[in-house]
Amino acid sequence: MKSRRLIPLAVALALAAIPAAPAHAGPETAAGSTATEPFCARHKCIALTFDDGPAEYTGTLLKVLKKYNAKATFFMIGNRVRKHPKLAAQVAKAGHEIGNHTYDHKYLTELEYREIYTQVQKAQQIIRKATGKRPVVFRAPGGLYNAGVLDVVGKFGMVQVPGTVATKDYVKDYRKVGLLTRRALEVAGPGEIVLMHETVKETVQSLPAVLERLSKQGYRFVTVSTLMEGEEVTPGQVYPPRPQVVG
Predict the structure, then answer these.
(1) Is residue 164 part of a domain?
(2) Distance between CA 120 and CA 149 in Å, rounded?
(3) Who has the most CB within 10 Å: 33, 197, 216, 241?
(4) In degrees, to the nearest 5, what angle opens at C-alpha 97 toward C-alphas 91 and 99?
(5) Which residues are identified as catalytic?
């Protein structure tokens, strides 16, 4: 993957619409990293991301990630967090990052601005209540966003992260363990953000083989925020600023 370091941007949080919203102090830091030398500047990093949970296979996924000392980012749907708050809390307690994936997975480009705001706000509130953490990364359903979506995301101090590559487990014909394993290994690369779904049983079943192989190749599995560490990222922007996947 080509270098994706950003030209420094002026960080100005547009948080006027959110009462008492704290400034984004910066992404979480992986163990052993420093302010002058980001973790992923010294290691071969990849960010695995899982959409649409919490769900039936979340507990199993957490066990697999723990076995390989892997951290990931879970883009959660607000109404599912409301239904499974303990699962969401377990994800956060295990050291994984939780991102906002809207309240009920509506395609935001089909909504009015006020509806977009409500989708993001409700999910943000529910996730924070369940986990004690306010998401700083956001993924629009289907990867579909426009200027209104980015404006709302920025007002909540978040960055839009569609993902850079995908296993395509959202395609029914791809839902075979062997195929998803090969897909994950094929799209893997330093600095990539891999889009997957924790709601797909075959994805969870493929993960041990994927983590085993990538671990042997020297990869460190980090959250999206750890991947962004050391870069100046403006809330409301798309990260990284290059063609994204849709899923």
Answers:
(1) yes
(2) 9
(3) 197
(4) 105
(5) 51, 197
